[in-house]
Amino acid sequence: MIELAMIDNKIVRTRIAPSPTGELHIGTLRTLLYDYALAKKYNGQFIFRLEDTDQKRYVEGSETRLLETIKDYGLNWDEGPDIGGPYGPYVQTERLEIYQKYIKELLDKGFAYYCFCTQERLDNLRATQKAAKQLPRYDQHCLHLSKEEIQKNLDNKIPYTIRLAVPKNETIIFEDLIRGKIKFNTNEVDDQVLIKSNGIPTYHFAAVVDDHLMKITHVFRGEEWLTSTPKHLLLYRYFGWEAPIFAHLTVLLNADGHGKMSKRSGSTHARAFLDEGYLPEAMLNFLMLLGWNPGTDQEFFTLDQFIEAFSVEHLHKKSPIFDHKKLDYFNGYYLRQKSDEQLFILFKKFLPEASDDQIKILIPVLKERIIKLSDLKIQTKFIFEDVEYDKELLLKKGTDPKLAVEMLNKSKEIIKLNFNDLSTKLTDLIKDNNWNIGEFFMVFRVAICGTVFTPPVIECLPALGLEKTLSKIDIAISKLN
Ligand code: GLU
Question: Rounded CA gap, 232 and 239, in Å?
Answer without folding.
Answer: 11
